[in-house]
Write a structure and sequence with these properties.
This protein has about 200 residues and is an all-alpha fold. It has two domains: about 1-80, Rna Polymerase Sigma Factor, Chain: A, CATH 1.10.1740.10; about 115-190, Winged helix-like DNA-binding domain superfamily/Winged helix DNA-binding domain (Arc Repressor Mutant, subunit A, Orthogonal Bundle). The protein has eight helices and no strands. It has helices spanning about 10-30, 30-50, 60-85, 115-135, 135-145, 150-160, 165-185, 190-195. Helix 1 packs parallel to helix 3, helix 2 packs antiparallel against helix 3 and helix 5 (about 135-145) crosses helix 7 (about 165-185).
């Protein structure tokens, strides 16, 4: 580690903890799971700090680890997540209404289109499920390229693959993700559906 960049694991929580937590929470929508994923990220980073070469910032490196932890979470828990989505009932709705069926408190004005916001959230949920279903190396190549923004050269160095192999894997990843999203009903609309 003496040859690599100087990193300070003791400062990670203060510097990046909130940003990492909010990133994880936006993807898993559960505070406890998001906290666990951030802790797993810090632990993985401490174990791997000797391999950190400084090719990206410390923050980018930590976010890259967290992205993989989120994907691993969905990969491990995909059947549990689907069951929870199906089992969520309407028991808690009574708290929003009074005895006459009127709102207890009126909803606030939304600046964003809630339908559009829901579509984006639904898309991201399906996207991460699809990404978690990809083979590990395929998911890694796609994540490094399209989410982390690494160059082909950087990806090849990280995964010890050739540039042509990288492009083939990336093409397969895109096709598999497209197919998965289309099966979830999130593909492009046909002309007959637009009318």
């Amino acid at each position: 580690m003496a040859d690599g960049p100087q990193i300070d694991p003791e400062a990670w929580v203060d510097r990046y903890g909130d940003a990492l937590f909010h990133f994880a929470l936006a993807r898993v929508k559960n505070r406890e799971i998001a906290e666990d994923l951030v802790q797993e990220t810090f632990l993985a980073a401490v174990k791997a700090q000797a391999r950190f070469k400084g090719q990206s910032s410390e923050k980018t490196w930590l976010f890259g680890i967290l992205k993989h932890k989120v994907i691993d979470h969905y990969r491990r828990n995909k059947s549990i997540i689907y069951e929870q989505d199906l089992s969520q009932g309407t028991e808690d709705l009574d708290a929003f209404f009074n005895a006459k069926g009127a709102w207890q408190m009126l909803p606030a004005h939304w600046r964003l289109n809630p339908g559009k916001s829901h579509e984006v959230r639904e898309f991201l949920d399906h996207f991460y499920h699809c990404l978690a279903d990809l083979p590990n190396k395929t998911a890694d190549v796609f994540t490094y390229r399209e989410i982390d923004g690494l160059s082909t050269k950087e990806i090849c160095k990280l995964l010890d693959i050739t540039a042509s192999n990288c492009w083939v894997i990336l093409y397969r990843a895109r096709m598999l993700l497209r197919k998965c999203l289309e099966l979830a009903g999130l593909g492009p609309r046909r002309e007959t559906e637009k009318r």
